[in-house]
Amino acid sequence: QVQLVESGGGLVQAGGSLRLSCAVSGKIFTINDMGWYRQAPGKQRELVAVITTAGITNYSDSVKGRFTISRDNAKKTVDLQMNSLNSEDTAVYYCNADLVIGSIVDGYRPYDYWGQGTQVTVSS
After folding, report:
1. Helix residue ranges per DSSP H, the chain
2. Which residues lie below 8 Å from residue 14, measured CB to CB, with a gap of 6+?
3. Is residue 111 pLDDT above 90, yes or no?
4. Mean pLDDT of all residues in 37-48
5. 55: which residues sit within 8 A by CB, 6+ positions away?
6. Residue 109: strand pairing partners
7. What is the mean pLDDT of residues 99-103?
8. What is the CA radius of gyration of the chain?
9. I need a surface site. Which of 50, 66, 99, 116 has the fewest CB within 10 A?
10. What Cα–Cα distance (Å) separates residue 73 from each residue in 22, 53, 70, 78, 99?
């Protein structure tokens, strides 16, 4: 069974740092883009950062210069280093991955997978 398992959320004071990690488990053929999204109370889920297989990154304007996304293709993981956190960063953070799953017999298909979410709370 394919899963995205997140870790690293928690409570931190404003100005502090946290590192989120997400690991893909289960049988997959390949991983394309990986990313982090977040959803604050009463708001829609929004993109935080995305990284391609080649390591090309894209960030939302609100986190540029403070957050860094990275991935390890061999370990099938994606991390989000968050620095200079402020109260507006408080949200549930979700890992996302575009996976290709299948076999030669059954064929390969793309799937969009999400982690269960991890809470990040920044106290002022």
Report:
1. none
2. 85, 86, 87, 122, 123, 124
3. yes
4. 97
5. 71
6. 101
7. 92
8. 15
9. 116
10. 12, 7, 10, 8, 12
